[in-house]
Write a structure and sequence with these properties.
Sc_DH/Rdtase_CS; alpha/beta; single chain; SDR_fam; 7 strands; 10 helices; oxidoreductase; SDR family NAD(P)-dependent oxidoreductase; Rossmann fold
C-alpha cells in the first residue's frame, strides 16, 4: 500500500477542482477525484503523469448514493486532505427556474457537500489530523439577484466553514474556505449565464484561484478571497446594505434580454 498522503478532490474534471488536483498530485498526494461527468477519466489520465496513484469516480455528489460511491472508492484509506469543490450554479430569475434544477444546485452545493465533510472530517478528528478546503464564493456575501439560489448556497458554505473551523479549533484538523470570484471555467455555461454581463466579462484564471486556496489550506488559514479585486469586493460587501448589494448583483447577473 502507498505511503504517500491521500487527498480527495470533488468537482475535479475541469476548472478550479482540476487545478486543485494538479497541485495536490504535484505535491506528492495520491488522489481520489470525482465529478458527475465522464471527463473525470480524462482528468485522471492527465494527473497520472505526476507519478502518484489516481482513482477517478463518476458520481452525482448531489445524492447520498453518489457520496457513498465516492467514499467506497477510498477503501477505508485515511484521508489527509479533503477539497470539497463540487458545485453547481443557476442563473435567471428564481420564479423562471425549473425547480428540479434549483434542487440540484442546493443538493450539490450544500447537502452532498455536508454529507461528505461529516464522513471524512469525523475520521480526521478521530485521528487528530487533516486539512479541509471548502470552495465557497465571494457571491456568498451578496444577495444574488438573478442567481439567488446559488448565492444563498455559497453564503451557507462560507458560514458553515467558519463554524466547523471553530468546532475543530482544539484539534489538528484545519478548515479553510476558498472564496473565488468569477473564474474562467465551464460554470457560466452550465448555469445558463453566458447571456449576462458577468458571463461575458473578464474572469480569473482557475490555476491562480486554486493556488491561492491550496496555499491557504496548507498554511491552515481560515479563508482566502482569490485576487485583489475579489478581496476588495468582499470587504465592500461587508459594509453596504443588502438592498444595495442586490441591485449591484442584478447589474452583473441579469440576462441581457432582461428575462
Amino acid at each position: 500500500m502507498s505511503t504517500r498522503p491521500f487527498a480527495i478532490v470533488t468537482g475535479a474534471s475541469t476548472g478550479i477542482g482540476l487545478e486543485l488536483a494538479k497541485l495536490a498530485a504535484g505535491d506528492g498526494h495520491d488522489l481520489l477525484i470525482a465529478a458527475d461527468e465522464p471527463a473525470i477519466e480524462t482528468a485522471a489520465a492527465m494527473l497520472r503523469r505526476h507519478g502518484t496513484e489516481i482513482t477517478a469516480v463518476e458520481a452525482d455528489l448531489a445524492t447520498p448514493e453518489g457520496v457513498d460511491k465516492l467514499l467506497a472508492a477510498a477503501g477505508g484509506r485515511p484521508v489527509d486532505v479533503l477539497m470539497a469543490n463540487a458545485g453547481r450554479g443557476l442563473g435567471h430569475g428564481f420564479l423562471d427556474q425549473d425547480f428540479a434544477e434549483v434542487r440540484h444546485v442546493v443538493d450539490t452545493n450544500i447537502t452532498g457537500t455536508l454529507y461528505l465533510i461529516q464522513k471524512v472530517a469525523g475520521a480526521m478528528r478521530a485521528r487528530d489530523a487533516g486539512r479541509i478546503l471548502i470552495t465557497g464564493s465571494i457571491a456568498g456575501f451578496m444577495p444574488g439577484s438573478f442567481q439567488a439560489v446559488y448565492n444563498g448556497t455559497k453564503a451557507f458554505l462560507n458560514s458553515f466553514s467558519f463554524a466547523l473551523r471553530d468546532e475543530l479549533k482544539d484539534s489538528q484538523v484545519t478548515v479553510t474556505c476558498l472564496m473565488p470570484g468569477p473564474t474562467e471555467t465551464q460554470f457560466f455555461e452550465r448555469a445558463h449565464m453566458l447571456d449576462t454581463p458577468v458571463g461575458e466579462g473578464k474572469k480569473d484564471d482557475p490555476a491562480m484561484v486554486a493556488k491561492s486556496g491550496y496555499d491557504a489550506m496548507k498554511s491552515g488559514d481560515g479563508d482566502v478571497a482569490a485576487g485583489l479585486k475579489n478581496k476588495i469586493q468582499s470587504a465592500v460587501a461587508n459594509v453596504l446594505p443588502s438592498g444595495v448589494l442586490a441591485g449591484m448583483h442584478r447589474k452583473m447577473a441579469e440576462p441581457n434580454d432582461g428575462a
